[in-house]
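Human: My hope is that you can spare some time for a protein that puzzles me. I am handing you a single protein, as its sequence and its fold in token form. Could you go through the record with me and say what the backbone is doing? Take your time, and here it is.
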Amino acid sequence: MTDVLALAAELVAIPSVTKDEGKIVEFVARWLVERGWNVTVQEVTPGRGNVWASRKGGGVTLSTHLDTVPPFVPPRVDDGRLYGRGSCDAKGIAAAMMAAAEQLVAEGEERVDLLFVVGEERGSDGARLANQLPATSRFLINGEPTESTLASGSKGALRITLRTHGREAHSAYAELGESAIIPMARLLLDLGALVLPTDPVLGLSTVNVGTIRGGSEANIVPGVCEAELMVRIVGDPAPVKAAFEHWAAGRCELSYPTYTPAQRFSEVKGFATKAFAYTTDAPLLGNWGTPMLFGPGSITVAHTPDEFIDTAELRAAVDHYVRLVRTLLVT
């Protein structure tokens, strides 16, 4: 059977920062073809695409994403942990799903599909397109680091761009211009005045200021400044947008480039549950069946220089996925 740790390390060793997933897509597709799967690579943009592997269909799809945040961090195994970019988010999960699917097939269960998408870390263009594929599964198990606990729900995400304008001038005569950065700084310091929705299961809506871009040179009064925010939402985005519109009150331009809804998940007997604060591709894959969220590893170490997954938890995840699939197929 597949050595899940070796496979996970191979996946982590392939750089696949969002928008540059071509090599890992090729690797995964070839790996599956060599093992008898019917594989479709759905182009998302030139050179990168989603990988869909099937046999009989009509059952359970195991799905996660192949892209990572930057920068690339190579794999290493140390003291019972696999380190490296994507080790828990989500290449270790992909490896566990591939090994679980192979085990199920070896045991005679072919009602399992695999769906690996690109672009999850920035806008989920892969998942949005994958929902157009002719899926037949009744259940979707989306893979994200849930500490090997079945999720009861996950927050949504609303990306917001703030833009302020000024008037450019030579910095030696700054009084002839108007800085776009100063009003942006004042705005961001005022974020604490926002009142956002809460939910009894998912908790508080939260705001992160992810990027700030302003000006072009130190000797030019800046004419434009932009800040990109990520709001983790717990329900309908309309009240969140209304709160931001009221808060901005003409002080800046607002736009909303992407939105992923919050999600509630079904429970499965024998699996503990809890809610998670991050966003997943699951709400964008509605045609793939009743969604669930499960995976080894902790989100608290994802996107960090020391990202890791415990090797024992990784190996156990293979059995967890097999048990989940078998449980769902008898419902």
In short: The mean pLDDT is 97. The chain has two domains: 4-153+262-329, 156-260. The radius of gyration is 22 Å. The first helix runs from residue 4 to 12.
